[in-house]
């Protein structure tokens, strides 16, 4: 869309919203009503051409650097114009009689893949190059260096892809091309100036004595304490018209910085009691139906552009597979804050996994998973048997043995709410005398398994397992360490979620269900997952042992073709 002088794009968006209220969330209707209310005020005014200067700068210099539009100049959507126009269009006279911007801080919360990166890059680059601010210090801040790089890379690429911007700018890079900042040097009337861009993550000690002109807090929901936000905000006080831009999706947990700033932003939206803060939040209305496609469209302003219904349908299918995936869908794609301690599975999602009988497994191929504890945790040996049902569909049968010290067993039964003694009588638990796990008993069980089944391999969690593993290797058993990192565990968790949802996983041990229902999963910044024993309130050791073995068995979950089904039937009825 061409930015023409005198055209008020904020007006265009507000009229579109008010004519079609059912298509927009109440939070955006409130933002539009606030804009319209401000236009009737006498103490502030809206300068269309100043707002449009910013819009024109973004469309003239900021380029897409990824995806099908890579290399093309940015073309702002009307909702993005509404955000920028409000940030840069409102003016008033300050106490000194100088005309300055009204908005000093902006909170923009939209779901994933709706263009937050472009909004962030456009605003920071305009502060550095377009506003004419002399000696502008600009910062891109995030919870850690990796997240800060996600914000910094498109900014540096925009500079490099624009000859007018790169001509007098030095970009500073570190290891593997990481961005630490940029320095723009220029002269006006023979006087030298420099505007800076710096990447920040956690450490703000270097801000003492400085007064940032522009601050980008990227993905505010991921920040865990208020220090960075508060330090950066207080450092801007001496500037006449600074800008802090907070961009975020909804997150997890009620204690995050994002949640606290979000609550204040919502209060300002309701009461219009802080002129310095602009708020735009795309979130569902109260009592929303998370399965309603109209809700999806309502909260994703870039639907049909950078977000498609097909993509959302794919994520929705995943969301139905576990409580964790549902929380991910709600927070990332519907922009809803959720409880950060949600367990990965809900009862109804896993209860079908438990069966009375797995059938005759003697001589069958299996892979072992070992999660070894010392005292209070459960030690578990998981036997994963890749198999097929009568239709040739790949399934996984899981036998498990748990080892528990029998000291204070009555107390432990009450504390864990698990009938360990009854489970021991049924053959699902082995007691170790005293307060410690007896590794010799675990070894004896593994040897017994090797005699009965076709054991291919032992995968193990390296913690506390080394001596036992050495003994297993001396038996000729191949042993593979599996570290509990998200980069390692993510694929096993995803596949487990899938096979449980598709009813391909079977076990006869109730403790597997107990452990599965206790699992809390943590994600890194790339969305890769791992089970967390620290955040899981009760024991998850059996599920971890299963996952460790599933590193191998997930590769074997392929359905049989017609020839394979014939062979299977022949084996069954032989």
Structure description:
- With 574 residues, the protein is α/β, with parallel strands linked by helices.
- It contains 21 helices and 20 strands.
- It has an eight-stranded mixed β-sheet, with helices on both faces. Strands 12, 13, 14, 15, 16, 17 and 18 form a seven-stranded mixed β-sheet that branches.
- A hairpin with a 5-residue loop joins β19 (521-523) and β20 (529-531).
- α5 crosses α6 (145-160) and α18 packs across α20.
- The longest helix has 16 residues, at 145-160.
- The chain is elongated, with a radius of gyration of 29 Å.
- The relative contact order is 0.09.
- Residues 79-266 form the Terminase large subunit-like ATPase domain.
- This is Terminase large subunit.
- Residues 272-553 form the Terminase large subunit-like endonuclease domain.
Question: Which tags fit this structure?
Answer:
about 575 residues; alpha/beta; 8-stranded mixed beta sheet; 7-stranded mixed beta sheet; 21 helices; about 20% strand; TerL_nuclease; Terminase large subunit
For the CA atoms, what is the radius of gyration? 29 Å
> Averaging pLDDT over every residue, what do you get?
90
Terminal CA distance: 72 Å
- Profile the largest sheet: 8 strands, mixed
**Gross morphology:** elongated
Percent of sequence in beta strands:
15-25%
Tally of helical segments:
21
Uncertain segments are none
Overall strand count? 20
Largest sheet strand order: 6-7-8-5-9-10-4-11
The secondary structure category is alpha/beta
- Give the fraction of residues assigned to helices: 25-40%
């Amino acid at each position: 869309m061409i930015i023409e002088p005198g055209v008020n794009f904020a007006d265009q968006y507000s009229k579109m919203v008010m004519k079609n209220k059912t298509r927009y969330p109440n939070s955006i209707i409130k933002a539009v009503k606030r804009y319209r209310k401000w236009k009737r005020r006498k103490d502030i005014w809206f300068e269309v051409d100043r707002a449009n200067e910013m819009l024109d700068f973004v469309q003239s210099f900021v380029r897409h650097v990824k995806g099908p539009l890579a290399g093309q100049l940015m073309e702002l959507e009307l909702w993005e114009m509404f955000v920028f126009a409000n940030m840069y269009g409102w003016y008033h006279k300050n106490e000194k009689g100088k005309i300055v911007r009204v908005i000093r801080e902006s909170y923009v919360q939209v779901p994933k893949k709706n263009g937050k990166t472009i909004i962030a890059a456009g605003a920071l680059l305009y502060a550095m190059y377009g506003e004419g601010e002399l000696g502008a210090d600009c910062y891109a801040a995030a919870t850690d260096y990796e997240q800060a790089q996600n914000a910094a890379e498109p900014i540096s690429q925009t500079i490099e892809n624009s000859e007018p911007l790169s001509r007098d700018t030095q970009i500073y890079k570190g290891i593997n091309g990481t961005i630490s900042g940029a320095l723009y040097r220029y002269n006006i009337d023979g006087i030298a100036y420099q505007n800076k861009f710096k990447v920040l993550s956690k450490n703000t000690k270097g801000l003492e004595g400085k007064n940032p002109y522009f601050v980008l807090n990227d993905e505010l929901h991921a920040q865990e304490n208020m220090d960075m936000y508060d330090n950066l905000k207080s450092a801007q006080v001496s500037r006449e018209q600074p800008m802090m831009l907070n961009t975020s999706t909804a997150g997890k947990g009620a204690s995050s910085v994002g949640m606290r700033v979000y609550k204040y932003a919502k209060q300002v939206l309701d009461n219009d009691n802080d002129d310095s803060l602009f708020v735009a939040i795309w979130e569902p209305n109260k009592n929303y139906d998370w399965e309603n496609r109209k809700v999806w469209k309502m909260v994703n302003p870039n639907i049909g552009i950078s977000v498609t219904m097909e993509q959302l349908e794919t994520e929705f299918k995943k969301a139905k597979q576990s409580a964790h995936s549902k929380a991910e869908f709600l927070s990332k794609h519907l922009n809803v804050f959720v409880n950060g301690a949600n367990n990965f599975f809900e009862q109804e999602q896993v209860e079908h996994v438990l069966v009375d009988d797995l059938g005759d497994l003697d001589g069958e191929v299996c892979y072992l998973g070992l999660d070894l504890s010392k005292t209070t945790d459960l030690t578990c040996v998981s036997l994963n048997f890749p198999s097929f049902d009568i239709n040739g569909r790949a399934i996984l049968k899981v036998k498990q043995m748990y080892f528990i010290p029998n000291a204070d067993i009555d107390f432990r039964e009450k504390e864990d709410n698990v009938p360990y003694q009854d489970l021991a009588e049924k053959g699902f638990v082995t007691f170790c005398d005293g307060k410690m796990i007896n590794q010799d008993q675990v070894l004896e069980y593994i040897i017994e398994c090797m005699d009965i089944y076709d054991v291919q391999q032992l995968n193990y969690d390296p913690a506390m397992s080394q001596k036992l593993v050495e003994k297993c290797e001396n038996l000729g058993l191949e042993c593979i360490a599996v570290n509990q990192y998200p980069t390692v565990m993510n694929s096993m968790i995803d596949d487990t979620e899938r096979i449980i949802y598709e009813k391909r996983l079977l076990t006869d041990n109730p403790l597997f269900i107990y452990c599965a229902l206790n699992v809390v999963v943590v994600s890194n910044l790339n969305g890769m997952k791992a089970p967390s024993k620290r955040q899981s309130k009760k024991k998850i050791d059996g599920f971890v042992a299963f996952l460790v073995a599933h590193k191998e068995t997930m590769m074997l979950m392929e359905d049989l073709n017609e020839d394979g089904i014939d062979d299977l039937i022949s084996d069954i009825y032989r």
